[in-house]
Amino acid sequence: MAEKLLLENFLSCHVCSETFRDPVSLSCSHNFCSSCLQKFWEQTKNKNCPICKRKSSRDETSINVSLKELADSFAKRQSESSPETEKEKEEEKEEVVCDKHPDVPYWYCEDEDRAVCPVCEFSLHQSHKVVPVEEAVSDLKEQLKSDLKSLQDKRNKYKQVEETYNEVREHMKKQLLSTERQIRAEFNKLQQFLKEEEESRLAALREEEEQKGRTISREMKMIEEQISSLSDSISAVEEELQKHSVPFLSSYKDTQSRARAQSSVSDPQLVSGALIDVAKHLGNLSFRVWEKMKEKVHFSPVILDPNTANRWLYLSDDLTSVRHRDTKHELPDNPERNTYSATVFGSEGFRSGKHSWEVEVGDHPWWTVGLVKESVDKNEPSVSPTCGFWCLTHYSGEYIDGDDQSLQVKKSLQRIRVQLDYDRGEVSFYDPEDMTHIYTHRDTFTEKLFPYFNIAEAGDAKTS
Could you give a GO molecular-function term held by this entry (predicted)? Predict the structure, then answer.
C-alpha cells in the first residue's frame, strides 16, 4: 500500500493533482501535465515553475515519453481495479436471466422492457407483448443504429459549423489587417492634405510679411532721405544765423527760400495696412480648411457590405464598386453571405423616408440592381417582388422589370438611378442623364430594405 501511495504521488501533477496526462519536464526537474502548465503560465503571464518559481530556460516543452508511459500504465491499472470496473464485471456475470433454465431461449417483454424466462414467468406476461430475444435485439439495434446515425449527422453539422467558425476567425484576422491598412491610408491622405494646407497657409503668411516688410523699407528709405535733406537745411540756416550783417544780407535769401521750400513739403504719413492681416489668416481657419477638404473627399449614399458579397465578386477598397471575376475568394460561409448568386447588398438598410443613388453599369451584359427585403431567401432564384426583390434587370440588351416583363428603353443605359419612397411604397428607376423614367413598382413595405446588386458575368458596377 505504501509503495502504491509513493508511486501515485510521484506520478501526480502538482497543478491538477491527477495522474500525469502528457507530462513535460522543466529544467528544474519538476514535472507537470502539458495542458496544466500552459494554463498556469497563461494565468501568471510568466514561465516560472509552479513549485520552485524558477524561470524555465526552455521556450518550448516536449513530452517526457518515459514518464508518460509509466503514468499511462499506472492509470490503466488503477482503472482496472476501480469500483466501476468491478461493477461492470458483476453486471457481465448477471447476463444469465434465469439460473434454473439457463439454456432456454429467452423472451423479451416490450411492456416491461426486459428479458424474461418463458418457463418461470409465462403466467406473468400472458397479457404483455413478448417476442424472442434475438428478434427484440435485432429491432432495438436497428433503432439504436438509427439513433446513432442521427447523432453522427448532428455531430457532422456541429463540426461543419465549427469549421466555418474557424474560417470566420481566420477571415476576421485578414479583415483586421486589411481594414487597418485602409484606415491608415485614408488618414495618411488627410494628414498629407492638412500638412500641405498648413505649409501653404504658412507660406502665404510669410509672403505677406515679406511684401509688407518691403513696403515699410521703401517708406523708411524715403523718410531717411527727407530727414537727411532737412538736417542739411537746418545746418545751413544755423550757419546763416552766425554770419555778420553784411555777409548775412548777401546770402540769407537763398537759405530762406530753401528752408521755406522744404517746410512746405507735406508731413510724412504712415502707410495704412502695414501690419499683417492676422484676421485673414486665422479667421474661420478650421472651417475654411474643412470646406477645401470637402473637395478632396467623396461621399457615397450606398456602401457595399463585403460580408454579403458572393465569392466571385471583388469589392473596391472604398466599398463603392464591385467586379465579377473568373476566380473566386476563399471566404467563410457566414449567414449574411450570398452563396447562390453573384450578389452583394448595401451595408445599410432603410425603414422609412426617401433615398436615391446611382449605379454605373457601363456596357456590362448582365446585371440586376434595386432593393431587397431583409429576410429574403438568399437561395431564391426568382428576383421578383413576391419573393422580396424590387429590381431592374438587364440581360442581352433587354431591360426587364420585377414582373419579368420587357421594358421599352430608347437607348443603352450606362447609369441607373434608383429611387425609394419607403412610406409611399414606391421603387423607381431612371436614366440619370435626362431623368427619363424607366419603371416604377408600387408595394407595401413592412421590413427593412437593402440596396441590391447582382453582377452575373465578368464586369463591374459602381455606386454614387
Answer: zinc ion binding
Answer for the pair 371, 452: CB distance below 8 angstroms, yes or no: yes
The C-alpha atoms of residue 31 and residue 62 are separated, in whole angstroms, by 11
Is 64 within 8 Å of 31 (Cβ atoms)?
yes
φ, ψ of residue 210 to 5 degrees: the values are: -70, -40
Euclidean distance between CA atoms 187 and 461, whole angstroms = 26
Here the contacts of 155-163 (C-beta below 8 Å, separation 24 or greater) are none
Query: Who contacts 152 (Cβ-Cβ below 8 Å, separation ≥6)?
Result: none
Residue 31: helix, strand or coil by DSSP? strand
Which residue, among 381, 387, 362, has the nearest Cα to 371 in the 3D structure? 387
Q: Are 456 and 368 in contact (CB under 8 A)?
A: yes
Residue of 27, 5, 19 whose CA lies nearest to 68: 19
Using N-to-C axis directions, what is the helix angle for 285-294 and 133-241, rounded to 10°? 130
Q: How many CB atoms lie within 10 A of CB 461?
A: 24
CA distances from residue 52 to 30, 45, 234, 237 in whole angstroms, order as listed = 9, 16, 103, 108
Strands 389-395 and 459-463: unpaired
Is residue 462 within 8 A of residue 360, CB to CB? The reply is yes
Task: Give me the phi and psi of 134, to 5 degrees please.
Answer: -60, -40
What CA–CA distances, in Å, run from 410 to 71, 356, 417, 431, 440? 85, 23, 16, 10, 17
Query: Which segments of 272-392 does DSSP mark as H helices, in order?
Result: 278-282, 285-294
pLDDT in tens, the chain (464 residues): 555 666 677 788 888 888 888 888 888 888 888 888 888 888 888 888 888 888 877 666 778 877 787 788 777 777 766 665 555 545 444 466 775 666 667 678 878 777 877 667 656 666 777 778 778 888 888 889 999 999 999 999 999 999 999 999 999 999 999 999 999 999 999 999 999 999 999 999 999 999 999 999 999 999 999 899 889 889 988 888 888 888 888 888 888 888 888 888 888 888 888 999 999 999 999 999 999 998 888 889 999 999 999 999 999 999 999 998 888 888 998 999 998 889 999 999 999 999 999 999 988 888 999 999 999 988 888 889 999 999 999 988 899 998 889 998 888 899 999 999 999 999 999 999 989 999 999 999 999 999 999 987 665 666 66
Whole-prediction pTM: 0.62
Instruction: Give dist(CA 373, CA 442) in Å, integer.
Output: 14
First to last CA, the chain: 83
